[in-house]
Amino acid sequence: MRVIQSSDGKETTSSFTVDEFTDKHDIEGGLTYLGLCNILKHAGFDWWSVKDSFGVMDAFFYGHGGTTIFVRSQHMHVYPAFYSKVTNKSLLLCKVKIVFVGKTSLVLHTVLRLEQTGELVATSSVVLVCVDTTTRRPVALPTGFIQKYSDLQNVPRPYKVSGFPRFPCSPEKLYRYSVSVAENDIDRNNHTIQSHYLKFCMDAAVQRGAREQAYSIPNKGVAVVKEITMEYMGESILNDTLVVVSWEDDTNPNVIYNVIQKEGRDIFNCVVTFDNAVIRSKM
């Protein structure tokens, strides 16, 4: 991988092949959603790694100094080239830019393209929050960091999760699926890997829900995803039992809502928009 930093320190451009960041088991004729999430995650780390004044930021990611960075929410848009042209040997060009800085949070925007043709593969906006490792409550970003990007404090926040709909009134519209957090779901901090919450939702809403005819359109198992919006509100650990509650939008059957609950408390929301015009499965 090669990483180039912009002169203002707000953007990095990196170039790499898909197999640099995905396990080969994740690829069956193309990149999976978990593989895409993994690439977007590493792209964010590349942005941090080239900052010459960010020794303090290492403490965020590795839990030193009493603070860490928590992904609060993320919105991904997936383009047709992801399905038709990306393979494990594809060369990708990734631009990551910091577009907003607040008191306790910041927003990164990522654009992923095929390097040879410039075709869009995916875009992502992610809200990161600085939290206390003990209380898990938001705390202020380092003063030096805020001062460095003071010009980004006065811009309108470019992205935030809108209100998530509550459960439909009719219980029969809900599909429930239980999952136990396994060892391969756990990260280095002994919490569930955040992208695996999406995996749990896909398992429920796509693979199982569609097979059991829980939705009005039966072929979601072979549909592809256009957009994913995720909101993280809590954490889970090894052997926790989680319940995925899933249902269709009342007016658009291509939209599936998912809520993951732990001991009756919502810890993750996810909205997945499918494109049933395409029938290649990428699960």
Care to describe what's here?
The protein has 283 residues and is an alpha+beta fold. The protein is built from five helices and eleven strands. The chain has helices at 33-49, 55-62, 80-84, 143-148, 194-211; strands spanning 2-5, 11-17, 67-78, 91-101, 105-114, 120-132, 175-180, 224-232, 241-248, 255-262, 265-275. Helix 1 runs antiparallel to helix 5 (194-211). It is globular and about 55 Å long. The protein starts with a strand and ends in an 8-residue tail after the last strand. Residues 51-56 and 279-283 have low confidence and may be disordered.
Task: Spell out the key features of this protein.
283 residues; single chain; 19% helix; eleven-stranded antiparallel β-sheet
In short:
Helix content is 19%, strand content 35%.
Largest sheet: 11 strands, antiparallel
- Give the overall shape: globular
Biggest sheet strand line-up: 1-2-4-5-6-3-8-11-10-9-7
- Sequence of secondary-structure elements: EEHHEHEEEHEHEEEE
Class by SSE composition: alpha+beta
Total beta-strand segments: 11
Gyration radius, rounded = 19 Å
Secondary structure: helix percent: 10-25%
